[in-house]
From TrEMBL:
Superkingdom of origin: Bacteria
PANTHER family named among the record's database cross-references: ABC TRANSPORTER, ATP-BINDING PROTEIN
Organism field: Actinoplanes regularis
Pfam assignment, any one: ABC_tran
Protein name: ABC-2 type transport system ATP-binding protein
ABC transporter domain mapped to chain residues: 4-235
InterPro entries (alphabetical): AAA+_ATPase, ABC_transporter-like_ATP-bd, P-loop_NTPase
Similarity section: Belongs to the ABC transporter superfamily.
Length: 304
């Protein structure tokens, strides 16, 4: 079952900036990365899913619901962690998250309990009565995550959750997000311009560029074997390269590896024979896997 489905979704802001253009995508449950360079349209997509802004044309459904006309029903099932800092410095995390739980419709006692639970999940239980103004950036990000979780949503939309964090803080936040997906069975859309980090924790990716869909697929499909063979020998790389070139293979080098396009099954056997004829010691012979970063053209690539 799809959790999100869009059809020709388009958003043009006043002033004529088209942030999303004709985006059609279907998203299955899991931990999903929404990736693209700055300005690609990720935040716009998230805001449309939440019913915060309306599409210019096209449709969007979240759990089969229309965020434009069924906003409350969508928000009851979706938690949102915004990109920007939006926390009151003079409240404790406990007060703040309880307040948002109350706003979601929970009675006072249940709201307090749920807030404590959410703060425990994000690792802030001990610190929950301290004022947010004294928190580190990492702790503030965790408060934002806790408030997104507090009403027990089925889907989390996280906008740049690792923003401003140092490498250790990033790893901790990514681990937390992954656990939310696996341990609680909540689907998560992680929006980021950092392809490398999203790739580590997601089952699937939606890649957008300048508001258009580049590809939406499972990461395993994106990194399937390519039709390029990587050949590495302990010694005699030059010799082998020359022999393969003589045999008509368009060989290229990548460090100690020779890369040879595989145009037929016979090519595999011919390369093996060449290695044997030259009496070289074969170190490695396998099909290269595609890299997710290949999705993006070099010029407009997300940071990897
Ligand atoms: N309220 C707005 N009015 C006009 N243009 C906007 C508005 N919000 C976003 N845009 C423009 O729409 C495009 C997409 O912006 P959006 O914030 O959705 O991208 P993003 O991928 O989330 O980028 P970032 O990672 O920088 O937040 C950008 O060109 C941006 O300048």
């Amino acid at each position: 079952m799809n959790i999100i489905a869009t059809q020709a979704l388009t958003k043009t802001y006043g002033g004529g900036v088209t942030a999303l253009a004709d985006l059609s995508v279907e998203v299955e449950p899991g931990v999903i990365g929404l990736v693209g360079a700055n300005g690609a349209g990720k935040s716009t997509f998230i805001k449309i899913m939440l019913g915060l802004i309306a599409p210019t044309s096209g449709t969007v459904r979240v759990f089969g619901l229309d965020p434009v006309t069924e906003t409350d029903k969508v928000r009851a099932r979706v938690g949102y962690m915004p990109e920007n800092d939006c926390l009151p410095p003079d409240m404790s995390a406990s007060e703040f998250v309880t307040h948002l739980a109350r706003m979601s419709g929970l009675p006072a006692t249940a709201a307090r309990e749920r807030a404590s639970e959410a703060l425990r999940h994000v690792g802030l239980y001990e610190e929950r009565y301290r004022q947010i103004g004294g928190y580190s950036t990492g702790m503030k990000q965790r408060v934002k995550l806790a408030q997104a979780l507090v009403h027990d949503p089925d889907l989390l939309l996280l906008d740049e959750p690792t923003n401003g964090l140092d490498p250790a803080g990033r790893d901790a936040m990514l681990g937390l997000i992954q656990r939310i997906g696996t341990d609680f069975g909540i689907s998560v859309v992680v929006c980021s311009h950092l392809l490398g980090e999203v790739e580590r924790i997601c089952d699937s990716l939606i890649a957008i560029q300048a508001g258009r869909l580049l590809r939406a697929d499972r990461i395993s499909s994106m990194t399937e074997a390519s039709d390029v063979l990587a050949v590495e020998v302990s010694e005699g790389t030059e010799e082998l390269a020359a022999r393969l070139t003589e045999m008509g293979f368009p060989v290229s080098r990548d460090g100690r590896m020779l890369l040879v396009p595989l145009d037929s099954d016979a090519a595999y056997d011919r390369i093996l024979r060449a290695v044997a004829d030259l009496e070289l010691n074969l170190h490695r012979l396998d099909q290269r896997r595609h890299r997710v970063a290949e999705l993006f053209t070099k010029k407009e690539t997300a940071d990897v």
